[in-house]
Specification:
Elements (H helix, E strand, L loop, with lengths): L1 E5 L7 H9 L8 H4 L1 H5 L10 E5 L30 H4 L1 H12 L1
Antiparallel strand pairs: 1-2
């Protein structure tokens, strides 16, 4: 999935994201909190930025086995954890896309 958005100062949802972090939902990913200003204001990453390109990956396999009340005590794994590490599989494609955009 790909979406484009205009940069307009602080991103919508910035306060909600900051609260999500303050509530400790980032678990052991403290880098999310350290990089909060850059995550909510793209102009801090690239001065003069006017738009952002957002990419998403669907980790689903077409079934929703976690919907509704739990019928068993078996663990439910995060979908991204059931696939190859996205750092290894997605990054090469992002690098190629970045080179195309720069050209």
């Amino acid at each position: 999935m790909v979406r484009f958005a205009a940069v307009k100062g602080d991103a919508p949802g910035s306060a909600a994201f900051a609260q999500w972090l303050a509530d400790g939902n980032q678990a052991d990913m403290q880098w999310l909190e350290r990089s909060l200003p850059k995550r909510t204001d793209p102009g801090l990453v690239l001065e003069g930025a006017r738009s952002v390109i957002m990419l998403g990956i669907n980790y689903g396999k077409g079934t929703e086995d976690a919907a509704g009340p739990r019928e068993s005590e078996r663990p439910i794994w995060a979908r991204y954890a059931l696939n190859l590490d996205y750092h290894d599989t997605v990054k090469p494609g992002l690098v190629k896309a970045g080179k195309l955009i720069e050209a």
